[in-house]
Predict the 3D structure of the following.
Amino acid sequence: MTCVHVSSANLSKPGPSDPVYREDCTQCFDSIDDPAGLDVCLKCFNGGCPGDRNHAKLHSTSHGHPLVVNIRRTRKVIERDEPPLKMSKLAIAAETEADRYETKTTVKCLECGLDELDKEDPAIGPIVDSVMKANTFSQKEEVKAWEQEMTSCEHILTLQQDPPKQIESQDLGHCSKCDLKENLWLCLQCGALGCGRAQFGGVGGNSHALAHSQETGHGVAVKLGSITPEGTADVYCYTCDEERVDEELGAHLANWGILLSERQKTEKSLTEMQIEQNLRWEFSMTTEDGKELTPQFGPGLTGLKNLGNSCYLASIIQCLFDIPAFQERYGAGVGPLPDVLDPAQDLETQLRKIADGLLSGRYSKPESDITVSEHSPEVPHQKGLQPSMLKHLIGRGHAEFSTMRQQDAFELLQHVIKLITRSKHPSGLPDPTRSMRFVLEQRLQCLNCKKVRYSSNEQDSIFIDVPLEKLPAEEGEEPKYKPVTLKECLDNLTATEVVELGCTSCSSKDGFSKRTLFKTFPEVLVVNARKMAVVNWVPVKVDVPVLVDDEPFALDSYLSKGQQPDEEALPEDEAAAASNVPAFVPNAEALAMLEGMGFPRVRCEKALHATGNSDANSAMEWLFAHMEDPDIDVPVSLGGDSGCVSAADPEKLAMLESMGLGGPRAVKALKETNGDVERAIEWLFSHPDDGGAVDEEETAAPAGDKKGAGSAELPANFQLQSIVCHKGTSIHAGHYVAFIRKKLGEQTSWVLFNDEKVVKVEDVEEMKKFAYVYFFKRV
């Protein structure tokens, strides 16, 4: 068939940077696997569904792009005659589409209504072939997810080796500093052999290779047991502190008489050990008697496919779209989708797309390509929605969320809230994050003159520090911790404490009592449970059961009463008003002693501020330890400056400074973590390249949103609605899942969302042990 639009369409092949959306519709999750297939625009390569929603026709009409290629894919039935192979490497040797699917393409003109245009037409055929061969958006994401991108570095490219020599085989048998015979790393610059750091799975190490690098400045080393005859190996640059690739590894090893052809791989690579460790972080999908938990299907019971390291995203998205405000804002009945040039790059469109996918039940059905056999007796789970477009959009321009590494689920939640709050909402549609906002009120009272100051801060979550008390354990057992109640954590959060600050009213240095309570309560209270222990200055996550009743509980006792008639307020002088806290007054005697020793006044004040304003000796020790700090001569705001340092709690800032983590980076860390010190420490370690610059746009509150956050009405009863759980020793690794309270038939039950797997669970005790983020609804 011929069409008048073919000659005038001026079609061109997709370029390397052009996204080709040929897997699912950019406005819903209808895909090439549906009976109607998917229409891919031959002009801009947008994917649109041709079914009952007909987003393809909407795109064609609004953009004037009538020509499409319809792609329909049928998955071949797989008979499992033997157990599936165990994954043993990070890169998946993926089957081709031809191995797994039967695919049919048809060229259509949506304006003329012609369904079978000639694919051999020279104006169409090459374009269709290029579309089918191009990497799709989600394929690029999956490649990033499973293929760790390692590159070389300047230290490898400019490596200057010592004069060649033959290292005898007996000298390659153990570490030169100890008796370890595995996990050995050869310095490529001088040929020294040292043991590595202790690794996952009990692999020993005393870090002698690292010590050698620090002593000599030699940065590049190779793990002997990982070398293969093909020239692959674990190469690590200690200077960059990153795993690297050495394209000249053969020549570099030959300098020490080591020939690639004679090497055999004898140890697991770092990548293989990482995968093995990640595979251990799994949540039970069986009952106590070993039976598979029953998969669930229907509206609100749709899973999300793991894109590699995206379980942190899936768990947060599932909990957010369980909140009524999100369902009402982005779910069915909101109105027509916005008419935008590129739906895949529009946040409003993608949030509505994910809401439809999760809530409609349209995609919640068993995957039908696996035949049950003795090797796969389980009921098939869902295929799961692939949230590639949303993940890309959320992570765009963000240093962490744009990568394929595992991330902190709570940090993602804060980022998503920020994106939604800033986005333009269509007329008459509310910001759904308002249901999570509330106001905390801080009361400061001078211990001498008893005058008070009240200040309030609008938030969308709270941090609770979970008390750590180890239980007796047998030798060799992993440490276990005493369970604590949620009430204990809230009591600690709202307890009165004494802070060492000077009073601007009476000039007393006795300090202040400080207490924080709720001024208002939200509709949905988000609680981040901080279960962190700092070991050798490194934050390590531990598992402490936090006991939370399933039944509603009252938070009335945590409501602030505000300033009382018999309380006298501190004067709002300029210094105190700028910092919103009483001014810091340096210890005059200690300051004079430090200045008498020749230290500049700026450094003296900073040292006293960092050491609690106690005495000259402590401050002097701090000064000697921080002489090389780049910001050592930057004045600390002592209450009379409206600069960024004054925005942080001086006491918490002093704690970070005492650990050598001061300056603008510490201020930003406290800001990014809502003032949580332990979380700020972890933020600093996980953002080593962040210089501490604060985005003014981030600090500005949305217009009109400061007023009316939350409600002070009583009673304030809350009930646990959903939980994000985490297994692993760090929130940047391991595995995240969500447990959500759902209505199943006539009963309310807990449902586990483990990526694409959605199952009903009977025992919820394990989830309490690994809970990381709680969502409580007001009832």
